[in-house]
Specification:
- By secondary structure, the protein is α/β, with parallel strands linked by helices.
- It folds into 2 domains: 9-110, CBS-domain; 120-347, Spore Coat Polysaccharide Biosynthesis Protein SpsA, Chain A, CATH 3.90.550.
- It has helices at residues 22-29, 50-58, 84-91, 151-161, 175-183, 202-205, 231-240, 290-295, 307-316, 336-347, and strands at residues 9-11, 13-17, 34-38, 44-48, 77-78, 95-99, 105-110, 120-124, 145-146, 149-150, 166-171, 191-196, 218-222, 225-227, 245-255, 259-264, 267-273, 276-288, 321-326, 330-332.
- Strands 12-11-8-13-18-15-19 form a 7-stranded mixed β-sheet. The protein has a 4-stranded mixed β-sheet with strand order 1-7-6-5. Strands 2-3-4 form a 3-stranded mixed β-sheet.
- α3 (84-91) crosses α4 (151-161).
- The radius of gyration is 24 Å and the shape is globular.
- The two termini are 31 Å apart.
- The relative contact order is 0.13.
């Protein structure tokens, strides 16, 4: 299994001055070379795309006009490559211009990657967020901002990055606020369908509301999970293993702060100083086959059901449940401490 961190692709680009004519710029664009616009000293001013030129021509412009007339001077840029993905999440820009400290463009990062063979995801957003109170007394956990961006927007942006555009979102607690959020948030390249839990159904019960609505394998993602997981690789792994359920697992280490005694009756045989216990934990991301969803008896009724009970029952029923271990960044941002740690990481 090939699992690795996703890196943005560096694109070829050409820096053109404001007085360059549109026809000259098109030569580069037609060769899939991005165009950035700079001043006489080479300082970054904006970008130019074929869409900018198309709109210019529709307004009776011509190819001999200077690109200063149609360039985008509100283009997204940063002098920190590490901030590029957060900018993509916040702005939905298809690519980000990287400059040096003097504002001279040095690189363009493409935010697109190989697309996932699985195109549907079910985002679990119905929880009460009790661990985040008092914040969640007035706002549902999926809308809590981390690094200035709502948690659920981060989840969707990661899915969009892999071409996963058919989204079901389960809602219960403060459902109206979540629905209203998407009435005012521009995710124009995804289809969002809300699945309303009339009563809280737990971490797996809402799956019963999808029966007969989905006829292809799909991802399940908790709305409070932030991760750098490669969804294309995960989806392909699930399909290759012909799994009914794939559980994404993250290695978790706990260190005992004390010296542990190895005792037999009253005799001390050994002292293990501050041992580390390592295990794999469920990461709140799954892949489920549609055939399994529509055939398992465990989702025949709409009742409360937690994911561990659902999975253990499915294993006892003889279904193929496999594990997909990840080493990429992962955080269950469901506590105040987890939010603080994530923001320290993002700012560090």
């Amino acid at each position: 299994m090939q699992v690795g961190p996703v890196t943005n692709l560096s694109l070829n680009f050409k820096a053109l001055k404001l007085t360059t004519c549109v026809e000259e710029a098109l030569k580069y664009l037609n060769e899939s070379i991005r165009v950035v616009v700079v001043d006489e000293k080479g300082f970054f001013l904006g970008t130019l795309t074929d869409g900018d030129i198309r709109r210019h021509l529709l307004k009776s412009g011509n190819l001999q006009d200077e690109i200063s007339i149609c360039a985008n001077f509100n283009a997204i840029f940063t002098d920190s490559e590490s901030k590029a993905f957060d900018l993509f999440t916040a702005t939905q820009a298809p690519y980000i211009v990287i400059t040096n400290d003097d504002k001279i463009p040095t690189k363009i990062l493409d935010t697109r990657v190989d697309k996932s063979p699985i195109k549907t995801a079910f985002i679990m957003a119905g929880g009460k967020g009790t661990r985040l109170r008092p914040i969640t007394n007035s706002i549902p956990k999926p809308l809590v901002k981390v690094g200035g961006i709502p948690l659920i927007d981060r989840v969707i942006s990661r899915l969009r990055k892999y071409g996963i555009s058919n989204l079901f979102i389960s809602v219960n607690y403060m459902a109206d606020k979540i629905i209203e959020h998407f009435n005012t948030t521009n995710f124009s390249d995804v289809d969002i369908h809300f699945v309303k839990e009339e009563k809280y159904l737990g971490t797996a019960g809402a799956l019963s509301l999808l029966k007969a609505k989905i006829n292809h394998d799909f991802l399940v993602v908790n709305a409070d999970v932030i991760t750098d997981i490669n969804y294309t690789d995960l989806s392909q792994y699930h399909l290759n293993n012909k799994a009914n359920i794939t559980i994404v697992a993250k290695d978790h280490k706990i260190q005992n702060p004390y010296g542990v005694l190895d005792i037999q009756q009253n005799r001390v045989l050994n002292i293990i100083e501050k041992p580390v216990y390592e295990s794999y934990v469920a990461a709140g991301v799954y892949v489920i086959s549609a055939e399994f969803l529509n055939s398992t008896h465990r989702l025949n009724s709409i009742n409360f059901l937690d994911m561990p009970d659902f999975i253990l029952g499915s294993i006892s029923d003889g279904y193929n449940v496999v594990c997909y271990p990840i080493h990429e960044f992962w955080s269950d941002v469901g506590t105040h401490k987890a939010i603080e740690e994530f923001e320290m990481r993002a700012n560090g």
